[in-house]
Amino acid sequence: MPFYERGPVRIHYAEMGSGFPLMVIPGGGLNSTIAGLDVAPGHPFNAMKEFSNKFRCIAADLRNAVNGQSSGPLEIDRPWDSFTDDHIGLMDHLGIKRFMVLGYCIGQPFIWNLIKRAGDRVVAAVLTQPSGYRPEMPTQFYDNNMKGWGPDFAKKRPEYTMEKVSAFLTNMYTKNADFVFTVTRDFVRNCKTPILVAPDDVPPHPYKVAMEVAILAPNSQVTLYPWKLSPDTVPLAVRHIRMFLQANRPAVAAQAQSMGQRAAAD
Question: What domain range includes position 120?
């Protein structure tokens, strides 16, 4: 699989299929990798495989995921933006101007940051098992990463001490400890991007936040819930996602809008 390089940043990515571009952001928190898409139950379906028959699917190992092949500086003062730099940079590297995006788990704050920084490029977004802030568990992401990601990362990259890891996670998860971490409720309320939410309800993926996003976003849809409990319901959610993506491909969406305008005129 190829690499995209920008200065000290080296991003390992994969492509599958053809058609309108669909960025896929794997779950797994700071250990998000392409290989993780095949690992259940974190990924009830592999979006790369499900949608590559209609879309050009693109995924990457997250910068500094311990079991991934992407690497770069630990940007302590701008954690979320450093990852968004990688997402936007990869699309630039591939010559892709506009794209759709599907993200699992940590993909929610990444997607909102993408829309905040490059909203004209994000045609539509799917928030699958979206992560968010739980006031009853205010430090869960900091604590989980200090145990499950930080020590292994510090061993792999000894130039970064656990003190630096702690500062990075503090800026990422506790300084803006609310909602989806990267944007405000007002931002979501004013966002016109089509959004599909596939809710979950485990500690890192609060149902309340997922539904708040769906209610606030003016152009949103929600899949059935719960959808991960049986082999029969996962395909229904995947079908809804597929229909949403196909309906929001620019050519299809423009045709539907034109037909709607003609019908209104008649």
Answer: 3-265
